[in-house]
Amino acid sequence: MQKFKIKRFNELSLDELYSILFLRSEVFVVEQNCAYLDIDKKDSKAIHVLGYINDDLASYCRMFNAGDYFEDSSIGRVVVSPKYRSLKLGHELMKVAIDSLKTTYNQKSITISAQEYLVKFYETHGFVQTSESYLEDDIPHIEMKRKIEDE
């Protein structure tokens, strides 16, 4: 089971920021063979969700308030370290992120830009497809939305 830290950009330590950027680069640039600028100047607006196994960053995503990325609140840069993928940590990460969005931003819906091959994964978390396939950094993506239930 992961232990989570949820932090604003200015609360991240240098070690945490380095671990985040390393993991994102390892997966989104190297593994997916996609030469793009991951550091997009949006991290400072995001809330960062870091999932740890022991002291190792195992999973990560970032969350935005409505209007900071999409019209709705959003979750992006969802990533699980290759060495932990067999543990299905992405599901736990998404649950924590969705629950955190409910309490942090008090929004009614979430929009994501999902890599097409992960549509089924996001559907298990209540997201539905709201667009046709499009290319983002030469990778097929689908826009998906999810309502946030009142509790």
Architecture blueprint of SSEs:
Elements: E1 3-8, H1 14-31, E2 47-53, E3 56-64, E4 73-80, H2 89-105, E5 109-115, H3 119-123, E6 128-129, E7 134-136, E8 139-147
Parallel strand pairs: 4-5
Antiparallel strand pairs: 1-2, 2-3, 3-4, 5-8, 6-8, 7-8
Keywords: Acyltransferase, Transferase
Pfam family, one: Acetyltransf_10
Protein name: GNAT family N-acetyltransferase
Q: With helices defined by DSSP (H or I, 4 residues minimum), what is the helix count?
A: 3
CA-atom Rg in angstroms: 15 Å
End-to-end separation in angstroms reads: 25 Å
Strand tally, please? Answer: 8
How much of the sequence is in beta strands? 25-35%
Q: Which architecture would the CATH scheme give at its second level?
A: 3-Layer(aba) Sandwich
Helix content bin: 25-40%
Structure notes:
Residues 7-149 form the N-acetyltransferase domain. It comes from Flavobacterium oreochromis. Its EC number is 2.3.1.-. Keywords: Acyltransferase, Transferase. The protein is an alpha+beta fold and 151 residues long. The protein has a single domain (3-108), classed as Aminopeptidase (3-Layer(aba) Sandwich). It has helices at 14-31, 89-105, 119-123, and strands spanning 3-8, 47-53, 56-64, 73-80, 109-115, 128-129, 134-136, 139-147. Strands 1, 2, 3, 4, 5, 6, 7 and 8 form an eight-stranded mixed sheet that branches. Strand 3 and strand 4 form a beta hairpin. The radius of gyration is 15 Å and the shape is globular. The mean pLDDT is 93.
